[in-house]
Structure formats: C-alpha cells, structure tokens
Amino acid sequence: MRKGEPLTDVRLLHTYPLPPGTVATPVRIADPDTAHLISPGSTISLLAAWEGQQAQLVADNVTVITIPKADTDHGALLVVATTPPQAAQLAAAQAGGRLSLTISNNNQ
Q1: For residues 86 and 8, what is the distance between their CA atoms, to the nearest angstrom?
Q2: Which residues contact 79 (CB under 8 A, 6 or more apart)?
Q3: CA 10 to CA 38: how far, in whole Å?
Q4: What are the start-end ranges of the E strands in the chain?
Q5: β-strands 98-103, 56-66: how paired?
Q6: Between the CA atoms of 78, 83, 87 and 93, what dihedral angle is there, to the nearest 10 degrees?
Q7: How many C-alpha atoms does 61 have within 13 Å on its Cβ side?
Q8: What pLDDT does residue 15 have?
Q9: For residue 60, how many C-alpha atoms fall within 13 Å in the half-sphere facing its CB?
Q10: Rounded distance, CA 65 to CA 102, Å?
Q11: Alpha helices in 1-108 (DSSP H)
Q12: What is the DSSP letter of 67?
C-alpha cells in the first residue's frame, strides 16, 4: 500500500468473490514471476502454447479469484472464475500445453 492510495476491500482481500454463474478453476501458468503482476480481482486472458505451435486464446476476460502461495518453480497457481466450458478448455490446454496470460486494462 502506498501513501495516498485509496483503501478498498479489494486491496486488502487475498481472495475475490466468485461471481454468480461461474466456477473456480485452478490453472498453472508457466512463468511464476507473472503472478506478481496481478492480484485478486484482476481481469486476464489465458493463452496456451503447444510444442511447435503458435499460442492460442483459451479463456478470455476471466477474473482472478486468488493466487495461492506456492513453494515450487513449476509455474504459478492461479484460481480464476470461468464458465464451465472455459474450465473444460483450460483443463484440455493444460494437459499438453503451457499457459501464459495477458492482463486486461479494466483491472481493479
């Protein structure tokens, strides 16, 4: 928290409420340092890349629910709010690909 920064519940919470009609979907992104750029409430898009192929958008404009602390170098675990079809696409993408993310400009 910086001097003069507005104090909000989103700034203090370690989790963000799950929006109605969504499911909590754990995903592991390839670069653990990327998790430091986002926080609960951030809006991100998730991309998957497979060996020798161009990255493809898997889930667009999903909300980060929480970022569990992890003691591993095998990427960063995020929990995001998705629709059930997005959750299925992410599960399939993680089975054989590596996930990365983009950050939307409408973050809280």
Answers
A1: 30
A2: 24, 25, 26, 27, 64, 65, 66, 67, 68
A3: 12
A4: 23-29, 43-49, 56-66, 76-82, 98-103
A5: unpaired
A6: -90
A7: 2
A8: 72
A9: 2
A10: 16
A11: 9-12, 84-96
A12: -
Quick check: helix, strand or coil at residue 52?
A: coil
If you ran DSSP here, which 8-state letter would residue 18 be given?
Answer: P
Q: Which two tokens stand for residue 10?
A: 């989103």
Cα 9 → chain centroid:
20
The structure's pTM equals 0.79
The amino acid occupying position 104 is: S
pLDDT digits (tens, 9 = 90+) for 71-92: 667 789 999 999 999 999 999 9
* Torsion sign, CA atoms 19, 22, 27, 30: negative
